[in-house]
């Protein structure tokens, strides 16, 4: 049995886990190694044969991996819901994105907008640009990264605005959240955790999922830009 729990996790819950949940787990003499990446990257690696003890990712691919027998049936725990938003450098003027028209104007007015090629936020944002009819104009000056935190590009001066899950924007020091995408361009993303069928430490993995889905964890999700799943209406 491996002494260290191996977790493959989406970036959306990184702030909640790194600031409170992982330190609380590790103070109980249990160790965990986390591989942080967008869900798309994680799922590709799992499909190519990589395994761990726990996977934290978007619901739909989690369900698909359960059906494929890669994740253990009955182990799935709903964790949190994330929303897409825009971030900018702290101290900069905050554009008004409260309505669809103002949102569109803010996107067109930005010198450059950073978004992820492989993350759920970037995939959705490309569809939003098409719906708004401004894909060509925005992409001509966009800063597109393969994976990681888009707000880093704002800090580096490469972009004025960053597109990502609000919880991910909050992970970067020096970034203020402008706000969520306005309806009808918002899309909520639900995340769950599950145990690999071939987990080396299944009992520790079960305990870890308990740790991620209890009432204390829910309070941490709320403070880090996420909505605990038990607060989501059925």
Automatic annotation (TrEMBL):
| Pfam short name (any one) | SBP_bac_11
Sorted alphabetically, the Gene Ontology BP terms of this entry are: molybdate ion transport
InterPro entries the UniProt entry points to: ModA/WtpA
**According to the lineage, what is the superkingdom?**
Bacteria
In alphabetical order, the GO MF annotations are: molybdate ion binding
PANTHER family xrefs: BLR4797 PROTEIN, MOLYBDATE-BINDING PERIPLASMIC PROTEIN
What name does this protein carry?
Bacterial extracellular solute-binding family protein
